[in-house]
Amino acid sequence: MATKTGEGFSSSFGAIMAAAGSAVGLGNIWRFPYICGKYGGGAFLLVYVFFVLFIGMVLLMSEFVIGRRTGEDPMKAYPKIKPERPAWKFVGLAGLFTCFLILAVYLVISGWTLNYFWESLTGTLAGIADSDFGTHFNQFASSAIRPSIFIAVFLLLTAIVIVGGVEKGIERVSKLLMPILVVLLAVMCVRSLTLEGASAGLSYLFKPDFSKLTGEGVLAALGQALFSLSVGMGVMIVYGSYLPKDDNILKTSLWITVCDFAIAILAGIAVFPAVFACGQEPTGGPGLVYQVLPVVFNSMGGVGRIFSTTFFLLLSLAALTSAISLLEALTQWLSGDKLGRTGSAVIMSLIVIFLAIAASFSFGDGILSGVTVAGMPLFDFLDKLTGTLLPPICALLTIFFFGWVMKKDDIIDELSNHGVIKIGYFKVFYYFLVRFLAPAALLIVLISGIIGQ
Ligand code: PHE
After folding, report:
1. Read out DSSP for 315-347?
2. Closest Cα to residue 233, out of 25, 366, 386?
3. Distances (CA, A) of 399 to 4, 20, 96, 238
4. Which among 1, 182, 200, 367 is least surrounded, fewest beta carbons within 10 Å?
5. 12-451, what's its fold?
6. H/E element holding 70?
7. What is the reported pTM?
8. Which of 48, 105, 229, 230 to mutate to test the pocket of ligand 1 (most atoms within 8 A of CB)?
9. How far is Cα 1 from Cα 447, in angstroms, rounded to an integer?
């Protein structure tokens, strides 16, 4: 609809589902609840909400504006807005490179998740003793063949959706999967909350403790706000280029932000009360999902297998809609007159799977674990680069472009749909955010993060 290739989302609802699908991912389910509890629960939430609203959502709107106004991929979008400064294309390129790296890490974890879904369904997990889950995970993740197969299957599913197209692939799948995800999550929440001793998990998550809110916690809140909303690396410029021309960007962005936040909170409620009720220690990442939660599910008896399968399905679906957005960004960039959508998606998939499998081989005791990049195994290096460093840098450059390079009138024109939507005082407030508050906050947090390394 919006782009030169004529592709786009058919409605605002479709656009919201697709972008919320990108936003809701592994970050919401396995990272948010843990860091929220670790850095002071309710105290962390206050800072997080501030970053989400005033930096994350502002970036989301800005990326949508850049994307819809130009109808181009991130690399072409910047110079199209500012033709006299073509070097801005490198910001788009840096974002796409970040997408590529994130996708590689994401595929490894998604492959693990798919494997656990399979092992739940077939009853393998139910047959493992509580004390053996650590070894089970390490053995599996360090092996060569099995994780690679699941990575390939997951990537194949992602690529099939991309080949289907923006409306018939991405939009249709997101409209189907997002509601399923919410229902599955609701089921998990009810189960978790009705376990005896669940309240300890709730107080871990929500009870404000300002003494735990350290500088590191503030950094984690910003990193999480950007990562969770999928902003900073151009994915939302891509989805912005598919937005209907009459879509209300402010409203759409608000919906996406609310969905993403609500799902992170629900994920916390689905996971931590159950973890505490089973007397397990809270943790995040692989430790939580592949070692602690299987113990929790097994302690539920026969129904545990149902909940375990539900949970890993939920996580796989959340990861799928995020991976779709990453592969779409790369595919849109590569496809041109000669190379269509299918060719680009196939080429990109073939390139990224190499990196993903290399990262998988470097994990734990894998065959590449001895090979280090900057003193770390490849997986850890990529994880660090994409988790804490690259997204805030790209986000800072994007917001700087928006606040200081792009014309204010053009921004307001696009946000108001050429004056059709009345945005009144909001435009003053918004412009203050993009020009001063968001870049300053990003800069401070980034510098303190780099110094603190
Ligand atoms: N937002 C996704 C998550 O929370 C991750 C992601 C980042 C997806 C960047 C796309 C782009 O898991």
Report:
1. HHHHHHHHHHHHHHHHHHHH--SSS-HHHHHHH
2. 386
3. 25, 21, 16, 16
4. 367
5. Amino acid/polyamine transporter I (1.20.1740)
6. helix 57-70
7. 0.95
8. 230
9. 41
Cα–Cα distance between 92 and 178 in angstroms, integer? 28
CA of 230 to the centre of ligand 1 (A): 4
Distance of CA 60 from the midpoint of ligand 1 (Å): 13
Domain boundary assignment for the chain: 12-451
- Give, in degrees to the nearest 5, the angle at Cα 218 between 255 and 376: 105
Q: How far is residue 157's CA from residue 150's CA, in Å, rounded to a whole number?
A: 11
Check residue 439 and give its pLDDT. 94
* Percentage of the residues of the chain whose pLDDT score is greater than 70: 98
Does residue 326 have its Cβ closer than 6 Å to ligand 1? yes
**CA 322 to ligand 1 center in whole angstroms:** 6
Hey, what are 20's tokens? 């919320």
Residue 438 has pLDDT above 50, yes or no: yes
DSSP conformation letters of 278-314: TTPPP--HHIIIIIIHHHHHHTTGGGHHHHHHHHHHH
Residues 19-67: pLDDT tens digits?
999 999 999 998 898 899 899 999 999 999 999 999 999 999 999 999 9
28 lines ligand 1 (CB under 6 A): yes
In this predicted structure, the answer to whether residue 4 has a pLDDT above a threshold of 60 is no
More confident site: 358 or 218:
358
CA torsion sign, 136 to 137 to 142 to 145? positive
- How many other β-carbons are positioned within 10 Å of the β-carbon of residue 448? 13
Instruction: Please tell me the predicted confidence (pLDDT) of residue 431.
Output: 87
- Whole-angstrom Cα Rg for the chain: 21
What is the rounded average pLDDT for all residues in the chain?
92
Q: Does residue 1 surpass a pLDDT of 50?
A: no
